[in-house]
């Protein structure tokens, strides 16, 4: 796996973690603002979190596909996120439970970029921390210090 790809996903994961922390700490940041400014700050932080989540989820499935091909030596003839996740499950690289989390993550990612409603954005934002933890677990396994 080339170093640049590893650095990209690790950097994107760091930015996602920052966005999670910022949104979690928004109450402390917003104390000096009135309600409408607090709402604006919340939406801005939430939307930043969602955009970073979209990037990380895209990088993750593409990295997973390359890992299966280059590190596991498997012929990966699929090109969609869900099919790569299913392929990784069949290759026993992912657990069944985690593959379900990743499928839901892809669905949330697709929904976030194709249907924009405040309620849906709020629901997805609440799920991102769980998606982040699952991605982080596998990236730590698949991206040791150097591959």
Molecular structure report:
With 147 residues, this protein is mainly α. The chain has a single domain (3-142), classed as Four Helix Bundle (Hemerythrin (Met), subunit A), CATH 1.20.120. The protein contains 6 helices and no strands. The longest helix has 36 residues, at 35-70.
SSE order, one letter for each helix or strand: HHHHHH
Residues in helix, % = over 70%
Low-confidence stretches: none
- CATH evolutionary superfamily: Nucleotidyltransferases  domain 2
Notable traits:
Four Helix Bundle (Hemerythrin (Met), subunit A), mainly alpha, single chain, 6 helices, 147 residues, elongated
Give me the secondary-structure topology.
Blueprint: H1 3-24, H2 26-30, H3 35-70, H4 81-90, H5 96-114, H6 118-142
Helix pairs in contact: 1-3, 1-6, 3-4, 3-5, 3-6, 4-5, 5-6
Kindly summarize this structure in a few lines:
The protein is an all-alpha fold. Helices cover about 80% and strands about 0% of the residues.
């Amino acid at each position: 796996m080339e170093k640049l790809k590893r650095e990209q996903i690790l950097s994107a994961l760091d930015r996602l973690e920052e966005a999670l922390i910022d949104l979690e700490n928004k109450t402390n940041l917003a104390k000096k603002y009135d309600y409408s400014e607090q709402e604006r700050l919340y939406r801005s932080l939430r939307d930043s979190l969602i955009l970073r989540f979209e990037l990380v989820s895209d990088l993750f499935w593409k990295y997973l596909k390359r890992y299966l091909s280059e590190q596991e030596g498997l012929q990966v003839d699929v090109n969609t996120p869900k099919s790569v996740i299913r392929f990784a499950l069949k290759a026993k690289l992912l657990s069944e439970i985690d593959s379900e989390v990743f499928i839901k993550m892809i669905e949330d990612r697709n929904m976030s970029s194709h249907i924009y409603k405040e309620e849906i954005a709020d629901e997805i934002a609440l799920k991102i921390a769980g998606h982040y933890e699952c991605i982080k677990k596998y990236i730590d396994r698949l991206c040791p210090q150097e591959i």
